[in-house]
Amino acid sequence: MLLILPGQMSESRGEPKERTDVVDTEGVTSRHPRKNQIKSRRHSTRNRKSKALTDTTDSDVSPPLQVCGKLQGPVESDNLSAEEEIKIVGESFIEDDSNAYPLRTRSRRSRRMVNRSGSEVTIPRKRVRRQPRRPLNFSTSITSEGVLSSRQFYRYMDHIWSEVSAEKRNSIACMDCLWFNTYAESKWKEKVLKWIEREDIFSKKYVLVPIVLWSHWNLLIFCHFGESLQSESSTPCMLLLDSLHMTDPKRLEPLIRKFVMDIYKNEKRPETKELIRKIPLLVPSIPQQIDDKKCGYFVLYYIYLFIKNAPEMFSIDEGYPYFMTEDWFTLEELDGFCRTLESVRVDTTSSDE
């Protein structure tokens, strides 16, 4: 004797498909795909994977939920009553950690919320102001603790340069304090090289290159770059003055040598790459700072004293390091120099007002 029992829905490629089986009273199941018969609730071992869909009807299975244009699988709602049914409007997404379900709307100023009771609430969005983007990440900013900014450096450097004699101005050039930093940004490299070309640095005895990288100031000096690299009397060289040797000044050497190589190449100099790579980079032992704030003032004082005491012909074999020693100046002399700069800043500010 055969019994016809409720059937089962099976999925094939995402669509329900009827399967017909015939079950006898002894529990043995046999398949008849061409007959309209229903499968028994007592499943065999191999068909237990589809048990979740056996006891559900079409009304219990919610339609596929569409999130950001993608179809998700069927959502089971056996644990929810009719009053707790979630209202889905258009494209939506569910937050499991709250009782509200935000819905996408065209307005950016507010959003609609549908709670579990079915009522809709409009909540205004908070406006967030974006911070302005800095053009460079290397430059320091002016602070109340006394850290030197690039704007202050320009002002103080103008005061120092105004006291330099015309004769020394013809033999010494000073680059902008942000040119080296801007060169580090690869997209501005060509512009910086054009600016340097206008300065005609190969006709100068000394070229001062202030560097501020990683919120720390250094001073790079090109000596006799216009002379032949094979000269014995005045050999071209580079000086790197750093007030914080514990940070290893030589870490800047790869970038400095790339900078120098591009300058020679842009000027179409006859020197070969092998000779340019042999230009020595010297790091003399000079007075060091005792805090983490006055590196910029040390660089200004280095510039002031170097312009004042620079020799006519800089020689590595005969006179180096000249005056650039550990007792070059005292911290009290540096403090007096800083007070002079502060008075210049106050006078300039009062005149502007």
| Nearest-integer average pLDDT | 73
Give the overall shape. globular
Biggest β-sheet description: 5 strands, mixed
Give the fraction of residues assigned to helices: 25-40%
Q: Taking strands numbered 1, 2, ... along the chain, how are they ordered across the largest sheet?
A: 13-14-15-16-17
Order of helices and strands: EEEEEEEEEEEEHHEHHEEEHHEHH
Structural class: alpha+beta
CA-CA gap between termini: 110 Å
What value does the Rg take, in angstroms?
A: 39 Å
* Tally of separate helices: 8
Count the strands? 17
Low-pLDDT regions: 7-30, 33-46, 48-78, 80-107, 131-144
Which band does the percent of strand residues land in?
Answer: 15-25%
Region (Disordered): 1-64
InterPro entries: Papain-like_cys_pep_sf (IPR038765), Peptidase_C48_C (IPR003653)
GO molecular function: peptidase activity
Family: Belongs to the peptidase C48 family.
